[in-house]
Structures are given as C-alpha cells and as structure tokens.
Amino acid sequence: MHDDPYGLGRWGDDLFEVLDNGDLGLRNPERPDLPAVSLPSIVRDLDQRGVVAPVLIRFAPFLHSRIDTLNESFGRAIGETGYGGTYQSIYPVKVNQQADVIDRIVEHGASWNLGLEVGSKPELLIALSRDLSDGSLIVCNGVKDDDFVQLAISAQNIGVSCVIVLESLGELDVVLRVAERLGERPLLGVRIKLTQKSSGSWASSSGDRSAFGVGASDLMVIVERLREAGMLDCLELQHSHIGSQIPNVNEIRSATSEAARFFVALRQQGAPLSYFDLGGGLGVDYTGEHRSAAHSTNYTLSEYCVNVVETVEYVLDAAGESHPTLITESGRAIVASSSILVFDVLEATYYDRTERIEHQPDDHPLLKNLIHIHDYIDVDRLQECVSDAEYYRNELRQNFRRGLLSLEQLARSEEGFLTVIRRLKQLARTADSVDEGVEKLLAQHVDIYHGNLSVFQSLPDTWAIDQIHPVLPIQRLDEAPTRRAIVSDTTCDSDGKIDRFVTAHGVSESLPVHDLVPGERYHLGVFLVGAYQETLGDLHNLFGDTNVVTVGLLENGDFELLAETEGDTIAEVLSYVEYDPRVCLDSFKKRVDAAVDAGRIDAAGRRTLISTFRHSLSSYTYFEH
Predict the structure, then answer these.
(1) Which of 86, 96, 380, 434 suits 124 as a labelling partner, its CA being 20 to 30 A distant?
(2) Hey, how many other C-beta atoms are within 10 angstroms of the C-beta on 134?
(3) Residue 404 and residue 321 in one domain
(4) What is the domain range of residue 403?
C-alpha cells in the first residue's frame, strides 16, 4: 500500500494486511502463521451465492480472539501484581443482541466462565435460554418488574446464578416483596453512582448525574433495610459503571479508586461482597491516534488491565480487605472489531474537470479572469488562486441570478472553475505543507461517492453522535489514491453521509479514493462496527437490515460460511411500519384494473405491472445490480 493513507497499521490491530494484488487481506488472529484471506474474494464469492452488498460480514476468529485477549490480559495483570482474586468477563447483551453473535460469545467464552449482562426482560429471557457455563453469572441491570425479579430469583433453582443489581430504593421494594412471596433468598448486587465523571462521547453515563444507580445516602438506606430484613448477606456484588469508551487512562484509575472505596465501606457495613463489577469503560481506538480523544484511547488493553488491578489491590490492601473477583462488562472491546460493513459505490459526482477550457471572444470578462488563473497557479500562491477562483465563480453566479449572464456562459463558468480546482487539488496533494485555510477551502470541493447503503440503518452512531469508524477501499490498495471524497448514502436525506474519516495523518473530512473504472465494482469497507450499530439502526426511507454473514478463515487461505441471515425484503420492512403487503398488492391491482377498464393499458401491460410490483415486494431494499 502507498504509505498506508488510511492508518491501517495504527487501528487495524494486526488483523489486516495488503496483499500483493492490492486486495485487503484478513489475518486469522487465532492462527497468525496462516496466509491472509482476501476480503474482496470473500465479497465476490458471497455475491455469486446471492448474498449481495451491502453486506455485514462477521468474522468469528476476530470475535474469539478478543474474548481470549481480554481474559488473558487480566490474567497476566493479576499474575504480575500478585492480586489475590480472579477475573470474570461479562458481555452486555445490549451491545449487540443478534442471536448468532450471542451464541458465539457464549460458546467460545464458556472456558472463561464468561457471563451476560442484561438490562431488560427480553434480554433476561435471551440469557436464561443460553447454555452458559456453570461458573458464569447473569448480571441483571435496568428497570425490573415482578416477573423480571421472579425469573431471576427462581433461576437459581435450575443452577443459574442471576445477580439482581439494585438500581433504586423502589426496586428494593419489588425484590423484597417477590422474595418473600417465593420464600427464596436472592443473589443481590447494588449499583453505586460515582462522583468521578469521565470524558468522551458518553460522559453523561458516568458521574452522580447518571441515570442509573444510587448515591451514598440511598445506599445506606438499602444496607439498613437489607439488614432489617435479614438479607444483608445476600448482597454479594457491587456494580459501579465507571463510564463508556473512556479515552483517558487516568480517568479509569480515578473512577476505579472511588468505586473501590465504596467496596471497602460496604464490606465494613457487613455486606459479604465477593464480586466487584466495574461495568464498561474500556475504549476502542477507532482512529488509531493513541491519544485521549473522543474516538481514541491513550492506553492499550494491557495497560487498562494493569491499571484496574493495581488500583483495586492498593485500596483493598490499605483497608486490610481480601481481594474479590473482578468483573468488567467490556462489550464494545469484545465485538467492535468482529464486524465489517461492505458496500459498493454506485456512481461518483466529480467536482473537477480534466480539460482546460479556452477563452472565447464573447466570454464575460469575469470568466476570462477565471480562466486566466491557470497562468499563475503555483504552490506558493495556492491561497491566492483558491480565493480568486471562489470570487470569480460567485460573481458569475450572481450575474446569472440578475439576468446578466446566459445559461451557456454559466455552464462554461462552472466548467472553468472545476478545471482550476482540479489543478489546485493536485498541487496541494504534492505540496510539502498546505495552509489550513487552503485545505478547508479545497475540502468544500471534494468528490461525492454515492454508496449503496443507509447510514441511518447500518451506521446510526455516525449520523447521531458523529461516531468515527475507519473506512477504506478493500481493493486497489497497491495504487495511490488519486481523489478525495465524502460518501453519500442512498437515502433521500442530506444527513445520510460519511464525512469524517480516519487517515494516516489523523481525522480528515475526506477519504482518499481511486477513480471509478467503468464496469468494475468499487467496494468500501467500514470497520469496527460490531458494537451497537446493528442494534440502533432505523428504517429511514424504509431501507432495512442488510444481508449478514458470519465467516471463518481456513488454513488454505480460503474461508467458510458459518451463518447467513438474509436482509429485509420490502414486504418485511412495510410490515414493520404497519402496512400489510397483501393489502398493498390488492389495492395496486384495483388501480391497475381501473386503468385497463379505462383503456389506458392492455392485459399484457397489466400482467407486467402487477408482476413487477409483486417481485419488488420480495426484493432487497437496497440497489440491486
């Protein structure tokens, strides 16, 4: 690859390499000795099977590796520090609830006694129906009604350890009432709000103004009420959510230290706590910048584990308390890297022109000035040339609005402007350094690559909270990209776009891309999309779920298809928004029959129209080649 323009070596975690033919290769982290598998070859094979782009591809080895690496990293940190307890990983179901994902996490995590965190009754039903290992936990957060609590308490009778985490005083009332009715003793936890507030995009999930958990005052009420009920010995877990996607390791240290102080205090109140759950917080370095920023982290996984273990050990040793089982709910870190969204580019809108237009005698004087910029374009005069081009084009447009310029002259003006911009963009790419102001001006004239996807459906965080995911072409990586572009999706919405990208030089407002070749597919991949994106997607313009596959990587450099879920059909999407597809078809038939009766179409035309409508109902919601 030419100088790694996409920063692949910084955020790719050694999972990818560029093959000799320019394809993006996928390395098997479970077998790093094996050759990398071409991602474009997987996409072509899927296309031949009828699994067309856009397609979400889940890689089972990536998922397995992250589970192993997380547990192994905590194991090493415990061994290095001499910590007296153990570590247990918990996967929060909300991060990606898809059945194939959950089943693979549960199956591969069994050797680590990996458990599940649930935040609703539907998620609890999912967890209770999975074949969890005997030593695993189900941590129950969220709002809980009588049925939720009864299920969680009664599950102990079938060998399932469900910890009911108390989030409020009202929830304690429910638990005490149901426990008394069942004559059972529940396994309890309590969620404590910390005063330490983290930074980043999800800062509001931390601190004492966060939505869930109790502060010190309500915590004491819970302790006393449990003591009065003779159930303080049921309180075995402390949960303290230190934050989500925390960028700064020192914030993790501070929050862990405060949570550990609460842990010591609860032990001293007589609660026999044996589990210390620090919730989420472990970040994913989406940009590979390795710094404390919204989409990055200034620490590695190993550093995170050591910091957590050392901090807990220090606080508990100072208080003379034994070391509990540490729990983290690192869902994002487990699943983010396991999924890649691949879509094809349907067409491009190029904001430049190749051929310079020549001045004609009847050209407007401002157009002559615009064309004349070619004569003094120089790297030292970039700012001047960009400003001049913008000025002359705007003046010519104003003249057209006032009726002082013909449509033909306006068209020539636009062509002339684009030829100037092309030369300026080429010059800026080759310059050693470019003024930030010039870069911003030229960024307004990058191309638009129209992608066959819905940002709202497949990348909702990109639209909603400006989440950055790495994007890059999956082919032609042996060629230097010649253009810069943003990506527009197929929805009829100006927000349906990707306009912030990870590059070798940091976050950019445009993506290095290649010229499209007529007759050839050009696929882009969006990486690190395994966390939350499938769960949060919506139906903007009624674009539904994409095709989804799970693949394994084989020893011979090939792959195997492990699971496939077809994307939504139009009929399915219509039913989601309360339309009956059969009623729609019947209503359309009536309109067509009325047209036949009126003599506007014949019987053959009727058959074609109704057949097309019926076929469309069963088709993919995205563009089909």
Answers:
(1) 86
(2) 9
(3) no
(4) 365-430
pTM: 0.91
Amino acid at 28: N
Closest C-alpha to 28, from 563, 555, 473: 555
Q: Is the pLDDT of residue 575 over 70?
A: yes
Burial classification of residue 150, based on how many CB atoms lie within 10 Å of its CB (0-12 exposed, 13-18 middle, 19 or more buried): middle
Q: Please give the torsion angle defined by the CA atoms of residues 473, 475, 481 and 483, in that order, rounded to the nearest 10 degrees.
A: -50
Rg (CA), the chain: 29
Same domain for 407 and 312: no
Decide which of 430, 455, 487 is a domain's last residue. Answer: 430
Residues 208 and 305 in one domain: yes
For the chain, what is the domain count? 3
Q: CA-CA distance, 341 to 53, in Å (whole number)?
A: 9
Spatial contact of 96 and 534, defined as CB atoms under 8 Å apart:
yes
For residue 79, give Cα distances in angstroms to 157, 165, 459. 35, 29, 39
The answer to whether position 2 is within a domain reads no
Query: Does 277 reside within a domain?
Result: yes
DSSP H or E stretch at residue 147: helix 146-154
Q: What are 144-178's pLDDT values in tens digits?
A: 999 999 999 999 888 899 999 999 999 999 999 99
Quote helix, strand, coil % in the chain, to nearest 5: 45, 15, 40
